[in-house]
Design a protein that fits this description.
The protein is mainly alpha-helical. The protein has two domains: about 25-80; about 85-115, no CATH class. Helices cover about 65% and strands about 10% of the residues. It is built from four helices and two strands; from the N terminus they run ββαααα.
């Protein structure tokens, strides 16, 4: 009884009956084969569902773009609502509350007044060279 697809082989040689049982392949070979089969099935699935994969990818990209645009709208709104003078006044009021007695706007206005009050016809200094 010989069989190439089965596991049992019966060898009769010179009147001696020897029964030999084929071993299953080693475990690491089975693991490699299973990995190849899985890879094959995955490729087959991708080929079958390529439209689904493309739709998912497009939806993911669209959602990411929408998040970016939402952040842009949020920052634009903050930019429009921001008032620099009010911000500085609030910070200065907080500083005065903490003990600082500096009034920057008064100092700025004083400097502007001094510049406008200064005579334009100052004598020029001569440089001796």
């Amino acid at each position: 009884m010989t069989s190439f697809s089965g596991f049992h082989f019966q060898i009769i040689d010179q009147g001696v009956d020897v029964t030999k049982q084929a071993r299953s392949p080693p475990k690491h070979i089975t693991i490699i084969r299973r990995r190849k089969v899985k890879k094959h099935h995955y490729k087959k699935w991708k080929k079958k569902h390529h439209k689904l994969i493309k739709a998912r990818k497009m939806r993911k990209k669209r959602n990411a773009d929408e998040k970016v645009w939402e952040a842009m709208r949020k920052f634009t709104k903050l930019k429009e609502e921001f008032d620099a003078e009010q911000f500085v006044d609030e910070k200065l009021a907080l500083a005065r509350k903490g003990g600082w007695g500096i009034d920057l706007w008064a100092q700025y206005k004083e400097a502007q007044r001094r510049r406008s009050d200064a005579p334009d016809d100052e004598p020029k200094r001569s440089s001796s060279a």
